[in-house]
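Review this today:
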Amino acid sequence: MDATEQKRAAAPLGVAGDVVSKRFAESGAVGLLYVSLPGLAAVEAGFGIEAHAQSVRALWDLVERFVAGVRAEGDLLVAAESSPEELVALLFRERSRRLFYTEELPALSDKLHALVRQQAGRIGYPYVTDLADARVGYAVALHNPQLRDDRQLRTALDRARADAQLNARIRARESARAFLSMVLGEKVQSVYQPIVDLDGGRTLAYEALVRGPQATFWREPEALFRAAEEAGVVFEVDCLCRQAALRGFAERRAMSGKLFLNCLPSAIHDPIFRGDKLRETLERCRLTPSDLVFEISEKESIKNFNIFRETRDYYRNLGIQFALDDTGAGYAGLEAVMQLAPDYIKVDISLVHSIDADNGRQGLMKAVISMAEAIGAKVIAEGVETEAELETVRALGVSYGQGYLLGRPEPAR
């Protein structure tokens, strides 16, 4: 449906709603299914009008296919007029169809919400993938011949919008409670991916990668920490992930080498991970400080490098090493490398992908290698997935590699 058709479709909720008025009067009632994806506004803000229109069309097509499965003669899908991210399906059924309005319509609302939530990533692709704010609600309007039809429909639309907002708040509350229960129950686990010496083929270390519970929205680390941020428990979840990584690694001592432990910059200030507490934790997991490499992401902000270096030196004196993760994925890479002076520099997958066919990526990799040599660090190429990428990074002088070609993440057991 193009923009002109959408504009015409919006008219039934406005002054030109003769068709809707007639159907409303004939059926004596109408059910409204309201759908909104407020997050699509970020597409327009970040990528412009055309990108936004593409995402809105994707939402329109999805809802249209859903409505087609339950459509009866006279039903309409319209824009809500106030925002292009809002759609309304008008489902006209005889007023005598009580079960449709009291049972079927609420069930349709729940099914549509699940569908939009499931497909939200595709709707925003390739511009945004975080569209978890799907809002779906419903309302029923019973025809009153004493009132203007457009006034009745607008009132019903307001009720449907309010229902969608209430549903969103209820789901957010339920999700927050479930997330807190998951955190208190320590229901996270780690999988371990090998980091391989590209010359000799031996395994240098394993990186612990966190995973939330199966079949939940928190399965992947990005969603897990996004939920933790919303709940205000980022530090607690970060600690929980470290504990799970240490336990799992201790249980699988067949994995030889070091353990790369992902940490937020604030994590190294954790008093529970210092002094006697650290010693007790490592002893309990049958590990020594020299077994650990703290992996700090370039994407995370280090607010005070002076304080960070002091804490870094404390851990280094114990034998713990440091790695800078995601190098090349952000804009602060050079400063982070020089300020942190890591033992390992992990080059982001965005620079490794197709490096065999990209002179620009090869030039950047050479620059990273030169910088690493200047500070005595080793380079690890992340995301190595093809033989051509492997041969290229090896020829350029990269010491270590990580990626599906070299080994997939596996659980401790």
